[in-house]
Amino acid sequence: MGIMSKGLKSIITCDLDGKVETFSEGAEQLFGYNEDEVIGKMRVSDFSDGQVVLGHVIGWLDESVKNGKWEGETTFLKKDGSEFPAKIKITPTKDKNGEHIGYCGVTTKLDDKTSEQVRPKINFMTQIFTWVVIMRLPFLSATIMPILVGAAVAKFLGYTVDWYWLGVTLLGGSLLHIGTNTSNDYFDHLSGTDNLNYNYSNKGLNGGSRGIQMGLISPYGVRNLSITVFALSVLVGIPLIQKAGMPILWLGLIGFLSGLFYTAPPFRFASRKGMGELLIGLNFGPLMVAGSTLVQTGQLLPEAFLAGIPLGFLIAAVVYINEFPDHDSDKATGKNTLIVVFGPEKARAGYVALVSGAFLSIVFLVLNGTFPSLILITLLASYFGVTSIQTLYKYYNDRLLEPANWGTIIMHSVTGLLLFTGLWLAAPV
User: Fold this and answer.
1) Helix (H) or strand (E) holding 76
2) Residue from 117, 88, 102, 113 nearest 30 by CA
3) What is 5-118's CATH superfamily?
4) Distances in whole angstroms, Cα of residue 355 to Cα of each of 19, 385, 407, 415
5) pLDDT tens for residues 11-40?
6) With contact defined as beta carbons under 8 Å apart, do 404 and 388 qualify?
7) Gap between the Cα atoms of 323 and 379, Å rounded
8) Which of 47, 58, 133, 326 has the fewest Cβ atoms within 10 angstroms?
9) Is 13 helix (H, G, I), strand (E, B) or coil?
């Protein structure tokens, strides 16, 4: 398998999230980092090419748990960015009760092979997945749901839904959302927020896409991607303006400026003590629902704004709960989210308020006669809110918070689907 360079052996242990817990003297010599630079500040994924992490490392870890170990050859990155070939043995680590708590990697440099010979192959699906990660495509539900609800509002009010224009609206909204995602990653990189954040989710729930930090794309690549996608959203927006008139331009412009300056200077709305959460709630709630209805009806209708309120509360809740793990890095870089302002423990009440506001607003819209009682089926989604609140109150400062992060996303999507269904079915035939 190769010859160990001067008897050098690297031993690194990490927790289940990959955060480094021990870093041997051999690891210091092999990777070029000091122990103080790494422990509690880096993840083992930082020592590998990003596409290798996406395409292989997760599988290696799973196999190590299943079989007791995984051994193979790969390439690693030194502190200076240079690559070297190595063999590695990964074993799961356990506590005294036999519970899986992390991993141990024993790495030996290969002197008889080149990096080209051992570099893991990156298949086409991994290349596709790379762009899915960079653009955070799974989270486009934040755009899809309010646009669908906007179409359902039009249907409920007696208008015929034009599926072509619904598709164009979804495309334009999605492009605007992707542009926002990528611009936020770029400016969070410039501010140092994402570079300092080692409490990020491995599944992209918080901490941005990590595309820059993983080496999947350069900072300028992200910037150029954002500019390109925003430009495409403008092109898609032109026929929408021709269809629905100038109001759709103003709504789109509000969305663009809010998204761009969410993290971009000089405004950095995300840093302004609740301004970021408020803008997210307005843009992905009342304004987007109203815009979708506008495309279908040619009118800005109060019912559309009202229908967007529950979704506005819930998407704000998604952003809000995902800010808990980011607390330390946000605080260090002056990003004053409400979690930073109030502290994680006190900020839990804010999440309860957002979730409660969403479902109470639905009840109110039925009681005041704005919408039919059929939309009360959306209250079924409150189940995810209850379980997420329970998890948040117990694990607000722990990696075990993740089910609440997922639960909030699911709650938002399910609420959107049920609201769409209720309005659609209640529409006049």
Assistant:
1) strand 70-77
2) 88
3) PAS domain (3.30.450.20)
4) 32, 6, 12, 11
5) 999 999 899 999 999 999 999 999 999 998
6) yes
7) 25
8) 58
9) strand
Backbone angles phi, psi at 109, to 5 degrees: -70, 135
Q: Is the dihedral of CA 142, 144, 150, 155 positive or negative?
A: negative
95 dihedral zone (left: phi>0; alpha: psi -120 to 50; beta): beta
Axis-axis angle for helices 288-297, 141-156 (nearest 10): 40
Q: What DSSP state is assigned to residue 427? A: S
Contacts of 230 (CB under 8 A, 6+ apart): 175, 176, 179, 183, 256, 260
HSE toward the beta carbon, residue 94, CA cutoff 13 A: 10
The closest alpha carbon to 56, from 26, 99, 17, 90, belongs to 90
pLDDT tens-digit series, residues 246-303: 999 999 999 999 989 988 888 888 888 888 899 999 999 999 999 999 999 999 999 9
Listed by start position, the domains of the chain span 5-118, 127-425
Whole-angstrom Cα distance, residue 304 to residue 110?
63
CATH hierarchy code of domain 127-425: 1.10.600
Instruction: Please provide the DSSP assignment of 185-217 as one string.
Output: HHHHHHHTHHHH--S--TTSSSS---TTTTTSS
User: How many CA atoms are closer than 13 Å to the CA of 233, on its beta-carbon side?
Assistant: 24
Report the SS3 class of residue 367: helix
C-alpha dihedral over 146, 148, 149, 153, to 10 degrees?
130
- 408 within 8 A of 388, measured Cβ to Cβ: yes
Write down the residue that tokens 């224009």 correspond to: 165
